Amino acid sequence: MSKIYKRKSKKINKGKQQKGDLNRKRSLIVNFRMSPLERQILDERIKLSGLLKQDYMIQSSLYQKVVTVGNIRVFQEMKKQIIETNNHLMQIKYLGDVDIVKLESFRMIVEILKGLDLDILEEAN
Description:
By secondary structure, the chain is mainly alpha-helical. It contains five helices and no strands. Helix content is 54%, strand content 0%.
């Protein structure tokens, strides 16, 4: 009686596996820490928006105005991104070859520089 009949053909499921996890459009996870008060305020804003939490976080992260504090690291990174974008633009032959990520980082740099109210941007316009 100690042996129980088990089918040899039965597959044993080891751990939970997310269905279609590898084929998801949004396959990356982003985490950050908040205080309880910040979490409460965020949850209220999400409820008022009528969006899913994921959609709200993505939209507010990508499309909201960001206030930055300039320091040497910020300017060095901006300079590096401008050089990379310039090199990319010099290499493209067709509009279809444009790297969207590089252009988006360049757009953000332009927004940051506009916020600094520099004379350089006024001369460019």
